[in-house]
Write a structure and sequence with these properties.
This protein is mostly helical. Helix content is 98%, strand content 0%. It has one domain. The chain is built from one helix and no strands.
């Protein structure tokens, strides 16, 4: 049994070192990239929301301008007839 522990101890130490290197070299940059993507997505959502609000405001204003234009055209038509 002690022979088995003597064999597994260096292997366990090596695995811990390899795992540490793996975390530092691969997982840390990957997590940083994922966090950057999350921030970019948040910013894009905010920009899309703002653009949607501006589009809606412009749609309302365009509807108002269209209504005024029709009213003005109606008055012009009635002046031409009368």
């Amino acid at each position: 049994m002690i022979e088995w522990l003597k064999d597994i101890a260096p292997l366990t130490g090596l695995m811990v070192v390899v795992w540490g290197v793996f975390q530092y070299v691969i997982l840390k940059p990957l997590n940083m990239a994922i966090e950057s993507l999350r921030e970019a997505i948040k910013e894009l959502r905010s920009e899309i929301r703002d653009a949607e609000e501006r589009r809606h405001e412009m749609e309302v204003k365009l509807t108002e301008v269209d209504a005024r234009s029709k009213s003005a055209q109606h008055r012009l038509d009635s002046l031409e007839r009368g």
